[in-house]
Amino acid sequence: MSLQHAILAAALALKTMEMKMVSNLAAVLFAFLTLAVVVFQLALVSGAPWGEFTLGGKYPGKLPRPIRIVSIFSAILLIAFAAIVLARAGIAFKSIRESSHWMVWGVIGYCVVGTVLNLKTPSRRERALWSPVVMLMLLSSLIVGAS
């Protein structure tokens, strides 16, 4: 192998490591943000008076008991999404690593819809709190999905 080929191979290896590091950081950011949202959802299930920060602010204060099922479903779905993103980045959940290559695009799609809905919500507080979070989740999942 010539010196030129060796330099190109080293540069490619460095670029690959750099991309992997960015993907891993994005996956960890996604997981951290997801954890924050899951804690919020579980607090709603437990009766936290934060209804104005969710569901368009339709239920100020505590969510009605029958509506809290939405928060349970959201928490479960978000935990699954974090597992998919971490698997796609190769950080955890090796058993779903192969299928995470296509499942991550479902996560990305969900984040696109979530971003649009949070930007359009009639609740000013919900929009101020969750729009930046969901945008970061979209960006970080997109980085992981594209890597």
What is the molecular shape?
elongated
Distance between the termini: 29 Å
Structural class: mainly alpha
Q: Name the poorly predicted regions.
A: none
Helix content: over 70%
Count of helix runs: 4
Sequence of secondary-structure elements: HHHH
The total count of strands amounts to 0
The biggest beta sheet reads:
none
Q: Rounded to an integer, what's the Rg over CA atoms? A: 19 Å
What is the residue-mean pLDDT, rounded to a whole number?
91
Q: Estimate what percentage of residues fall within beta strands.
A: under 5%
Question: What can you tell me about this protein's structure?
Answer:
Helix content is 76%, strand content 0%. It is an all-alpha fold and 147 residues long. The two termini are 29 Å apart.
Task: List descriptors.
0% strand, single chain, 147 residues, mainly alpha, 4 helices
Topology:
Layout: H1 3-45, H2 68-88, H3 97-120, H4 124-146
Helix pairs in contact: 1-2, 1-4, 2-3, 3-4
What is this structure, in a nutshell?
With 147 residues, this protein is an all-alpha fold. The chain has 4 helices and no strands.
